[in-house]
Design goal:
By secondary structure, this protein is an all-alpha fold. Helices cover 64% and strands 0% of the residues. It has helices at residues 2-35, 50-56. The chain crosses the membrane at residues 6-26.
């Protein structure tokens, strides 16, 4: 029994460690995908309120 355990334990440890590494990497990638906002949902910057533009053009005719 101890003989079998001595041969199985190193392989079991190797598989366990690599499974944990793969699990961390995959979980990190899934979390990154889940938390990132799609670019399409990003709203454009709001345009300045109309009174800002009116104040800048006060007393001037539009150049045609």
């Amino acid at each position: 029994m101890l003989y079998d355990l001595a041969h199985v334990a190193p392989m079991a440890a190797f598989v366990f460690v690599w499974t944990m590494i793969a699990w961390m990497l995959v979980g990190d990638r899934l979390g990154e995908i889940r938390t990132r906002r799609p670019e399409a949902s990003v709203k454009p910057a709001p345009k300045p309120a109309p009174h800002f533009r009116r104040r800048a053009n006060r007393g001037q005719k539009a150049a045609v």
